[in-house]
Amino acid sequence: MSTQRDLDMVHLRLILVSGKTQDFTFSPNDSATDIAKHVFDNWPEGWEEERVSSPSILRLIFQGRFLHGNVALGALKLPPSRTTVMHLVARETLPEPNSNGQRNREKTTESNCCLLL
């Protein structure tokens, strides 16, 4: 029998760049930083080759956007009792959002190119 607490939990399927997946369950109050720390501290078997040196470089991508560390799962209004898929990547820094929440697209001398193999 499910309790109300179980029904409120958020079910995530995290996908690595390698294509490996793992399911986790979190509270709606958990932030992207909380999730990164939990995954780092409970690194799944089978993900050894992708292990990172610190939880601070783990980033979540949801619907094509990086989630900044303080974003709580509850703010995303994820469908209850369904598994939501997010990508988990290692990246030192995140693009800074502008006032509209979009990434700054001004031309710079830096390259923002990424190659996935």
UniProtKB/TrEMBL annotation:
Matching InterPro entries: MUB, Ubiquitin-like_dom, Ubiquitin-like_domsf, UBL3-like, UBL3-like_ubiquitin_dom, UBL3_Ubl_met
Keyword Ribonucleoprotein found: no
Subcellular location per the Swiss-Prot or TrEMBL entry: Cell membrane
Cellular component, GO, one term: plasma membrane
All copies of domain Ubiquitin-like, residue ranges: 10-88
Keywords: Cell membrane, Lipoprotein, Membrane, Methylation, Palmitate, Prenylation
Topology of the protein relative to the lipid bilayer: Lipid-anchor
Keyword Cytoplasm: no
Pfam families per UniProt: Rad60-SLD_2
Top-rank lineage group of the source organism: Eukaryota
Protein name in the entry: Ubiquitin-like protein
